[in-house]
Amino acid sequence: MPLLEVRDLTVRHGQLQALTGVSLAVEAGETLAIIGANGAGKSTLLRTIAGLHAPAAGSVVLDGRDVTRLRPHRRVAEGIVLVPEGRRLFPSLTVEENLLVGAHRDRGAGAWGLARVLELFPWMGERRRQLTVQLSGGEQQAVAIGRALMANPRVLLLDEVSLGLAPAVVRRLYDLLPELLRSGVTVLLVEQDVSHALRVADRAQCLLEGRTTLEGRPSELTADQVEAAYFGLRGAVAWSG
Amino acid sequence: MVWLNALIQGLLLGGLYALFACGLSLMFGVMRVVNLAHGDFAVLAAFLALPVIDVLHVPVLAAALLVAPAFALLGYGVQRLVIQRSLDVGPLTTLLVTFGLAIVIQNGLLQGLSANSRSLDIGPLASASFRLNGQVSVGTLSLLIFATAVVVLLTLQALLSRTAMGRRIRAAADDQEAARIVGTDTRHVFGVAAAIAFATIALAGMAFGMYSSFDPSIGPQRLIFAFEAVVIGGLGSLWGTLAGGMVLGVAQTLGAQVDPSFGVLAGHMVFLAVLAFRPAGLIPARVT
User: Fold this and answer.
1) Does residue A90 belong to the interface with chain B, where contact is any CB pair within 8 Å?
2) Percent of chain A, pLDDT > 90?
3) What is the three-class DSSP state of A18?
4) Most B CBs within 10 Å: which of A74, A80, A92, A150, as the mutation test of the B interface?
5) Which residues contact A176 (CB under 8 A, 6 or more apart)?
6) Contact yes or no for A102/B183 (Cβ under 8 A)
7) Nearest Cβ partner of A88 from B167, B178, B288?
8) Which of A149, B102, B115, B147 could pair with B37 as two cysteines, CB 3.0-4.6 Å apart?
9) Which residue, among B185, B220, B218, B215, has the nearest Cα to B79 in the 3D structure?
10) What band does A234 get if pLDDT is binned at 50, 70 and 90?
């Protein structure tokens, strides 16, 4: 049984249908990457899984339990934690306070805590009393990831980690994934930058205009297939999942 | 020397204004709610203290220890059941809803308790004072209220900056959605912030009741002073609120020294001047 399952999810923003019958399944310990162009519905998908949007149809199931009706903070208690697009750190809190806010009393038992996060990002220790506006973009992204880890997620949702960051910084952040997986975290990530996503993911799924157009293992996907599914070129329909 | 006396009285009066305004500042800083019923809740607290004192035969200060927690509970309930619903609809709705609450409280008190002026009897404390020299004397009550204001602000500061709940309150004030996705029940957190604010409203309402008389319709008049203290000090800044209260108090007492009818007007003029020349307030800051 997959750890996280999304079944036929349809989400509307007013008149706009952001997602149409999207399904996905992530096995425990796996990394699934959702790729797609701007406006494909990737962020909407993650935000719906985190509980920020109510779907018009479909369900979100964690470890066999339907969590579709749970509010966001209850989903964190169940182990679904989102690292949002744009990082969304708390500007009036210090680095350490940002991390501590991420801790959840229902998820205290687990591999992650303040000490372990500071071990993962050694530079944070001496800058823990600083406000996050004093950090670089990559450092802020690291705090956002650390804040999510504090809740000992079962499923970590990563939304556009690469946004606004230099490729080398993005690479360093994604290089942390194996360690997260080893600690028992399952990762569902969303990425515009296909090369990063395909490098780190076990499986990839491409969204176009709110529908799945391609899915498979990165090693089995050809560049032409990905390009066609990503931009909606002819021939991609055959891969529709 | 009369000016020095007026200055000192004004600074101490500022403590009362700050005590009264910090709840307004907190609710605005955290929930972005402008509580137009703030003054009326303070009056309600004073009216609630009357039977507590009568029935239990306890001094006013002991009654405060009962009324403040009761008001904290009331604040949590009002936030969760009334204000949160209006917040979910839109920011302007909270103005309408709190305005409605103000009218309900005023008329409820008027209906149930008549329009008579009341005051909280504190016995000899009302006139107790000590002289600094021949012409300057300080009222013991004013000083007590000022000290209470400072203690309340220090406590608020410590709550917000040193406790886990305070951290969550500040996080929710910064970015509500981000707070929710890291596991914060923002509705509960807002309820707690309202509870804290209402406890300070109760203390301020009772302080007003000891300082002067009150009647069911006086809330809105007092609310203006709280607004002025908050705006002069800087929105969302607790210590700014104390500074704002003191500036307002000094403006009023110095104004009254020029002409007794000029006091309140002088306060309004300082408020206008701050709005015109320093709209962010004297100490602009976040709720920290």
Assistant:
1) yes
2) 67
3) strand
4) A92
5) A120, A145
6) yes
7) B178
8) B102
9) B185
10) low
What's the rounded Cα separation, in Å, for the pair A32 and A204?
6
Question: Distance of CA A3 to CAs A153, A184, B150, Å?
Answer: 12, 12, 53
CA distances from B201 to A30, B42, B225 (A): 53, 5, 13
Minimal C-alpha gap between B167 and chain A (Å): 7
DSSP string, B154-219: HHHHHHHHHSHHHHHHHHHHH-HHHHHHTT--HHHHHHHHHHHHHHHHHHHHHHHHHHS-B-TT-H
Asked whether the beta carbons of residue A92 and residue B170 sit closer than 8 angstroms, the reply is yes
User: Residue B283 — φ and ψ, nearest 5°?
Assistant: -125, 75
Segment B63-118, tens digit of pLDDT: 999 999 999 999 999 999 999 999 988 878 999 999 999 999 999 999 998 888 88
Rounded-to-integer distance, Cα A3 and Cα A26, Å: 6
pTM of the model: 0.90
The predicted-structure confidence for A132-171, as pLDDT tens digits, reads as follows 999 999 999 999 999 999 999 999 999 999 988 999 999 9
Query: pLDDT of B209-267, one tens digit each?
Result: 988 889 999 999 999 999 999 999 887 778 889 999 999 999 999 999 889 889 899 99
H/E stretch holding B83 reads none
Q: Which of B173, B129, B150 is nearest to B14 (CA)?
A: B150
* ipTM of predicted assembly, 2 dp: 0.89
DSSP letter (8 states) at residue B138: E
- For residues A61 and A70, the answer to whether their CB atoms sit within 8 Å is no
The pair of structure tokens assigned to B42 is 């303070």
For the stretch B43-68, pLDDT in tens is 999 999 988 888 888 888 889 999 99
Backbone angles phi, psi at B44, to 5 degrees: -60, -40
**DSSP code at position B235:** T
Give me the residues paired with residue A206 across strands. A35, A214
Q: Would the CB atoms of A148 and B182 count as touching at under 8 Å? A: yes
Q: Which residues of B68-98 are buried (b: 16+ CB within 10 A; e: fewer)?
A: bebbbebbbebbbebbbebbeeeeeebeebb
Across the A:B interface, residue pairs with CB atoms under 8 Å apart total 71
Can you read off the two tokens belonging to residue A95? Answer: 């680095």
Residue B160 identity (one-letter amino acid):
L
